[in-house]
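Researcher: Sequence recovery benchmark, item below. Answer with residues only.
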């Protein structure tokens, strides 16, 4: 039995976000169709979005699937507010920003998402798609703290002298205090954030997940789906363990068995 279940997570499939790391719409839509109804959400990142644009996001949302738009906005508050309104207009369930953009930028993002949703309640596309949100009428806004590809030496190169853990705690706390709904965190940071930032009520979405039966690939700081969830993650993002499996539906079934709530 898994304790952490924020609103909208009713069963194991709601916790699973599948990364559509594809170069074109046909490959992405093929997987969406194959996994339709089996997973909680699909993640569209900068590769697919830059290739296919907002039309593909609309198409997937209109097909009844939930979308996490992983574009990690990082700009002046006014521009991020505009980008956040655009994301809300697309009907995505989750989008994210870089916490290094600062408190004002994060407040601008969550404020704009809430404001857009409030003004457009009638024709807001997301409706059922946002059940996972603390306020189901608007998209969830998450913060990226330290990129999972960076270590303390990389932080030092950009002038940050703290170690990764301290920086993650600092930025996650700032995200919480700036009104974000949660953060994206690597498996090794989940417990730290639960202990030092928020025991619950603050969403943790975790990439870097490898089921025990799948290849490790280039991932270094990895965890199994069950471990990530028992450590306190709400949502897990999985790409290649599903997309590169010759039987993606069977891969999803095996993962869901592993994280049954
Ligand atoms: O490794 P996998 O294919 O499961 O990655 C799925 C997604 O998780 C990718 O789209 C990437 O954005 C994200 N990821 C990450 N940090 C990692 C590995 C992957 O944020 N260390």
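Model:
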């Amino acid at each position: 039995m898994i304790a952490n279940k924020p609103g909208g997570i009713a069963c194991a499939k709601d916790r699973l976000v599948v990364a559509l790391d594809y170069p074109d719409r046909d490959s992405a839509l093929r997987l969406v169709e194959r996994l339709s109804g089996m997973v909680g959400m699909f993640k569209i990142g900068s590769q697919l979005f830059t290739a296919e644009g907002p039309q593909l996001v609309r198409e997937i949302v209109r097909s009844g699937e939930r979308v996490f738009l992983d574009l990690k906005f990082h700009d002046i508050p006014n521009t991020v507010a505009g980008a956040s309104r655009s994301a809300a207009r697309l009907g995505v369930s989750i989008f994210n920003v870089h916490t290094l953009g600062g408190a004002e930028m994060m407040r601008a993002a969550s404020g704009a998402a809430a404001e857009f949703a409030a003004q457009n309640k009638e024709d807001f596309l997301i409706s059922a798609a946002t059940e996972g949100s603390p306020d189901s009428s608007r998209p969830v806004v998450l913060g990226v703290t330290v990129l999972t590809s960076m270590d303390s030496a990389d932080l030092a190169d950009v002038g940050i002298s703290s170690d990764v853990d301290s920086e993650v705690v600092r930025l996650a706390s700032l995200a919480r205090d700036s009104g974000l709904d949660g953060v994206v965190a690597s498996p090794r940071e989940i417990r730290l954030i639960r202990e030092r930032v928020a025991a619950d009520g603050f969403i943790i979405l975790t990439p870097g997940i490898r089921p025990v039966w799948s290849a490790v690939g280039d991932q270094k700081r990895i965890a199994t789906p069950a471990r990530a969830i028992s450590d306190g993650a709400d949502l897990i993002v999985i790409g290649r363990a599903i997309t590169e499996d010759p039987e993606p539906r069977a891969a999803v079934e095996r993962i869901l068995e592993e994280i049954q709530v």
